[in-house]
Every structure is written in C-alpha cells, then in structure tokens.
Amino acid sequence: MSSVTLGRKTEPLYALVAQFDTVEDIRLAAERTRKAGYTRTDAYTPFPVEGLDEDLGMRPTNLGWVVLIVGILGLLGGFFLQWWANTVYYPLNAGGKPLNSWPNWIVIMYEITILSAGLTAGIGMILRNGLPRPYHSIFNTPGFEQASRDKFFLSIEARDPKFDLVNTRAFLEALEPERVSEVER
Amino acid sequence: MALETGKVTVYPETNRVIRRGETYGSIDDRVLTPVLQGLERTPTWWWIGFGISAALLVVYIVSVVKLITTGIGIFGNNIPVAWGMPIINFVWWIGIGHAGTLISAALLLFRQPWRTTVNRFAEAMTIFAVVCAGLYPILHLGRPWVFYWLVPYPNTFGLFPQFRSPLDWDFFAIGTYFTISLIFWFIGLIPDLASLRDNARNGFQRLLYGVLSLGWNGSTKAWQRYQRAYLLLAALSFPLVLSVHSTIALDFAVAQVPGWNNTIMPPYFVAGAVFAGFAMVLILGVPLRKALKFEHLITLRHLDNAAKLMLATGMIVVYGYFIEVFIAWYSGVEAERYMIWNRMFGPHGKYFWALIFCNFVAIQPLWFRKVRQSPWALFVIALAVSVGMWLERFVIFVVSLTRDYLPSSWSDYVSTFWDWSLFIGSLGLFGTLFFVFVRLLPSIATAETKETAYHDHHHGSDAFETIRMEYYNAEETA
Fold this sequence. Notes:
- The complex is a heterodimer.
- By secondary structure, chain A is of the alpha+beta class.
- Chain A has 5 helices and 4 strands.
- Helices cover 42% and strands 13% of the residues of chain A.
- The two termini of chain A are 12 Å apart.
- Chain B is mainly alpha-helical.
- Chain B has a single domain (24-461), classed as Formate dehydrogenase/DMSO reductase domain (Formate dehydrogenase/DMSO reductase fold).
- Chains A and B meet through strand 2, helix 3 and helix 4 of A and helix 1, helix 5, helix 7 and helix 15 of B.
C-alpha cells in the first residue's frame, strides 16, 4: 500500500513479488516457480483461478473433513439433546406418544446438523485463512490494490530456503512479469 | 483508480450471460461506482425509493409499539381463526426468500453460469425477507421479549421447549435458515469488500470496508479454502431451502383441519415458495438493472431463465390446486368435500378465483419467448404472482379455519387496521434494508462475475453458448 521510502529500507525483506496481467501468465509463472524448487510461495488473484493451487504445489484443503465431522456431531448432539430432555430430564407424555418418539425429532436433528456444519464451513474458512487480519506484509507491494481488480501477483517469500535476492529476482524477471517488487515485512 | 465518472454507457440488450468483451476492470467500474460515489452523487431514484420505504418503516415501528403496548387483540384473529394475517404474512415473506437461496446454492451445484450476476441481490432479498418473516411469529407471541424461551437452554424453570411441536421445528428451521443464508452471503461478499477497501475514496469507506473485508488478500491458499467452504455451504443450503418450507407446511399438514391435513403440503409449499421468490427476484431485478445500468450484466438471458423457473414452479403449484380438489373428492370425506366447495363458492370464494387468475392464468404468457424477454411485462406478471401467492395463503389458512368439522364452531374472519399496517410496514422494513444494501454494498458479485468473464473470453460461458447464440441470431435476422 504505502510506497517504499529510503529511510525504511533497513526493514527486513518479506518477499519478492512479481505482477502479471493474465491468468495464463500467472499460471505459467506459478508452475515454473514450483519446478524451480521454491516452496514458500503464494499467488494473489482477484478471483479464484482454477488449477493455480496445483501449479504452486499446494495440497488440497481438509476443510471438508472438518465440516463432515462437526456435522455428524451436530446430528448426534441434536438427537441427544431431545432424547435427554424428553425422556430423562423431564419425561412428558404428549398425545400418548412414547417418550423416545424419535421421528418427531428428525426436523430439529436435521436443522442442527446443517447449522453446525454450515457455521464450521464459513467460520472455519475465515479462521483457517488467518482472518480477520487487517495487516499483512503482502499489502506493502506497490500496486497491490489491483490484486482485487485485474492484476495477478506471485510472491516468493524471503524465508524460502532457496531464496536469494539476486538469483530469485533474476528468476522472476525471466518470467516476464509487468514488474518485480521487493516487499518489506 | 480509474472508476467511471460522468456519463455512464448503457449497453444494448443481449442474450448472452455477459456482454461480449467485458473486462475485469469494466465490471469493477460499473458495479463499484454506485457504491463508492459520494453522497451528493446518490441518484434521485434512490432517495425516492429509500424515502418511501423509510416512511413505511415508521408505520411498522408504530404498529409494533401499538402491538406490544396493547397486545395481540389488535389483530383480527379470533377463535377458530387463531392464525390470521400474521401467519399469512409470515409464510408469504419466508416463501419470497427461497429464490435467493435456490439461485445461490442450487444453481452453483448445477454449474449454471447465469447465477453469478443475480445471486448477490437475490441473497440479500432472502435475508431481508427472512427478517420480515421471522419478526411475525415473534411479535405474535404476545410477549415478544421472551422469545428466547424457544431456545433449548438450561434455565431456572427446569423446562425445555416442546420438541414434538411443529412450531418449535419452525423456530429451528428459520433460525438455521437465517444464520446459514447470512454466512453464505457474507462469505460471498468478502472478496468484493476487499475490492471496495482497495478502491475506497475516503476514510469512512476505508474503515467500513477495511473492517468488513477482514483483511482478505486473495491468496491462492485462501481462495482454495474459500471455494471449498462456498461449495459446502451451497451443498448444505440446497436441502435446507427445501426443508424450511416443508417444515412450515408441516405446521399445517400435521393439524387435523380440513384442507390442511394433506401429504401434498410440503412439496406444494416448496414449489409455491420458489414461485413467489422468483417473482420477487424479477420485481427487484427489472428496476435494479435499469437503475444501475446493469443491462449488460443482468441480461435478457437472466430474466428469461428466471421467468422459465417461475413458469415451471407455478405450474407445479397449479398441479397442487388440482390435486387438492381431486383428493377432497376422492377421499369421500364430507368435511374435505365441503372445504373445497366452500373455498370456491363460499363467502371468500372471490379470493380463490382471484388466486387462480394470478397464479395460473397470468403466468401463461410466459410460454412465449417474446414475453420472457420483455422486462416490464415480466415485472407486471411477477406483481400478479406476488398478490396471487398472498391470496393462496389466505385461502388455505383462513378459509379452512373458518369452516372446521363442527358447524357450531364456524365463524368468520375480518382483518383489522393493525393487521394491514403491520404488513405494509413490513414492506417498508424490507424496502429500507434493500435500498441501504444497494447503496452500501455491490449488488453484483464482482469476483464471481470476473470468473465468468474469464471463461466467456476463452470458451463461452457454457457448453451451449455457441449453439444458443446461433439460434438467436438466426431468429433475429429471419
């Protein structure tokens, strides 16, 4: 966001960031970066680019399993809530039905399942992404406000074992980006 | 940032999902400008619409104060019609919400590219309609301030809600529906909020959108989880939307009132809800695309598809009407047969025929493509459907209750001033929320639309795009 001033040049380096104009360019660049052996990499795009995660060598997210497990717990919790309340805690004869009249509880069991699974999917995604997080070093990239508009950014972080300011910069320049920036932490 | 200033180009109508040649930047400019422009540039139509809605909101607030200070005796409800206007309006509002979830969830799962530009405002419509709906049963409780007794929580009374009651099922269904719709909507908004943050023109916007966007930066890992979460929420919402109106239908179907105790109620209610919902999508969408000059983003193709869905669900509802009549006759139950006769020719018979006109006759022009492609014709038909669906609930709820098994308990129902002021006021609540939404948040999901534009550049927005456009062009030149 803020431009680099001379006085702050001593700040530790966060990453080298290359800016691209099209989906094809960023995908090609991501693939080459992975093949060159860089691991602490990420790409920033205005919309989800199909296949970019694989180009960067990212593993698929395990969010689906978490949601499944919480959903099942919600289903069981919904059942035991009603079973306990109606048969153990306060047995109530309603219309001569058995106390454990589980068919009557299906709707609430179902709703609690959806509620717990849905909240896990939504809030889980936000928290696993480290949000809310107002400050992130990547925002120091010049022109990064266009990452939400129409530009595509590829970052190689300074903590990458293969990172070397001169070589990595030369590597990124060879990918023919629109520009390469040194981004401070 | 080069957001559009001055005169805004209006693009010609198109049958494509998105105008050919739309770029990522041009989508942002068109959608974000009305949100980010200064207060002094707010268009007149917005002030007029917001003003009328806010005035009606005052009517709502006055009615609620009157209701709380006086009690629910101000409604026309009586015995046997213990459920009058409040439940008609409740079911009417909740039904309207269904199209938004259907568009956002079902069309995502079916990979329909036309959902991307309509899902945002349709989801907003869902949430606001559920707010209007949810307030009705709470206000009708008599002591609305203790509505939380419906939540099962350990309390000093040592009591739990009656889990076997469909009214408690309602509470869970609507509570879940509202929560999931809200989180689905918010997650869809996050990338657009980040866009607004990056384009903010003053400190207020930077703060508002900066906080709401949670620091979204569009990293690939974040998008990966985002897409998975979005898909999961869609997969969870689709059955949810079918279950919500089914649950509401069970309020009636498990009761023994003639005309209510039918197994057809849940599917018939769901179809009616989607029908009413698509009508509301058109009522909001047709003026919205005109006012915000979105004709090249919300195209004739979207209207055409929404109209087709309205026609299809409408005909399912009409099938429901015929089956109700048939089953009443076929069951041989005297009370059921009388119920249908009373519905058609009794004291409220004119409402039945008005509903048949609105929900059956008025939608027949939708078989013709010319009608489906005329925005204002669709607007009028959609208004008729909204009225028709309100009448349908009146006919099912009130007319059935006035004629129970025992003629000694027969009665009539007359609505009161406060019944109507609360209903008209709830329209104001909905309108106010919607106008505020249009002013403060992007009415089209820009990130998703950019994805659609990307696919469109490369291989058309869907597999049949080329074939379809050849058909349209051949027809237009012929």
